[in-house]
């Protein structure tokens, strides 16, 4: 039972353009969402997060949008750079008060083409 | 800045052997989490500790046990290893902010366990 789903296993984007990675979730109790970036042979690196009381959070080139009614979130990267090529994981937790486990999506491999 | 340290980075074991994975959280982080990532899969939560007490448990086999020590480092002990235990094992740590919320989990580089 995959509670967090990333339906696109891969995405290819031209350098300088916008990359949009999508994530859907089924558990309406999730109320804190995070995006992680992962290079081969390394651990996931935290990128950006959003709590369910917001619909948008921005940090530099990264913006996360949350649509609670659709149980959908997306990560926008603009402009995309070659160093952004990696696997991106969406993760969700049952809140941020207290030590909550993360439930991950399957990941999307983003490739930025020069 | 100091990151999460995991050792060893690579481990090769035979079936039915035991393995111990170590995790050293970021200084002043009081919570440690263990995740398992199989080939081509997403990380799966195994177990977590807060202030040296187990706080949550996921799909961790009975053959595995873990603990958090007084210096906050954690060890994952795996016995009677099976071929299916071959995976990347990640440790993550987090801390409570001034507002009382736990925010992001910071991951270590992982230990790649290969069971032959």
Summary tags:
heterodimer; A: 114 residues; mainly beta; six-stranded mixed β-sheet; five-stranded antiparallel β-sheet; 11 strands; 53% strand; globular; B: 116 residues; seven-stranded mixed β-sheet; four-stranded antiparallel β-sheet; 49% strand
Description:
The complex is a heterodimer of chains A (114) and B (116). With 114 residues, chain A is mainly β. Chain A has no helices and eleven strands. In chain A, strands 2, 4, 5, 9, 10 and 11 form a six-stranded mixed sheet that branches. A five-stranded antiparallel sheet of chain A has the order 1-3-8-7-6, with no helix packed on it. The N and C termini of chain A lie far apart (38 Å). Chain B has 116 residues and is mostly beta strands. Helix content of chain B is 0%, strand content 49%. In chain B, strand 4 and strand 5 (44-50) form a beta hairpin. The chains are: A mainly beta (114), B mainly beta (116).
Instruction: Indicate the overall shape of chain A.
Output: globular
- The shape of chain B, in one word, is globular
Which percent range fits the helix content of chain A? under 10%
Provide the gyration radius of chain A in Å: 13 Å
Say how many strands of chain B there are. Answer: 11
Radius of gyration of chain B: 14 Å
Nearest-integer average pLDDT of chain A: 93
Largest interface: A-B, 22 and 30 residues
Order of helices and strands of chain B: EEEEEEEEEEE
Number of helices of chain A: 0
Question: In percent, how much strand structure appears in the residues of chain A?
Answer: over 45%
Helix content of chain B: under 10%
Give me the secondary-structure category of chain B: mainly beta
């Amino acid at each position: 039972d995959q509670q967090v789903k990333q339906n696109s296993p891969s995405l290819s984007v031209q350098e300088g353009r916008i990359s949009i990675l999508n994530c859907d979730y089924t558990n309406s109790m999730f109320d804190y969402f995070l995006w992680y970036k992962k290079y081969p042979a390394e651990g996931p690196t935290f990128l950006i997060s959003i709590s369910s009381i917001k619909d948008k959070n921005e940090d530099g080139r990264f913006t996360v949008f949350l649509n609670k009614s659709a149980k959908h979130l997306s990560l926008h990267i603009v402009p995309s750079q070659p160093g952004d090529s990696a696997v991106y994981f969406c993760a969700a937790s049952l809140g941020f008060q207290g030590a909550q486990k993360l439930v991950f999506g399957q990941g999307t491999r983003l490739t930025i083409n020069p | 800045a100091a990151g999460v340290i995991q050792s060893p980075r690579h481990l090769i074991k035979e079936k039915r052997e035991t393995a111990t994975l170590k995790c050293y959280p970021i200084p002043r982080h009081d919570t440690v989490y263990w995740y398992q990532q199989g080939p081509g899969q997403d990380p799966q939560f195994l177990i977590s500790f807060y202030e040296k007490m187990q706080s949550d448990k996921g799909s961790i086999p009975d053959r595995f046990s873990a603990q958090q020590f007084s210096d906050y480092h954690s060890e994952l002990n795996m016995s009677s290893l099976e071929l299916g235990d071959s995976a990347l094992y990640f440790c993550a740590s987090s801390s409570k902010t001034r507002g009382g919320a736990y925010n992001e989990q910071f991951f270590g580089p992982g230990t790649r366990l290969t069971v032959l």
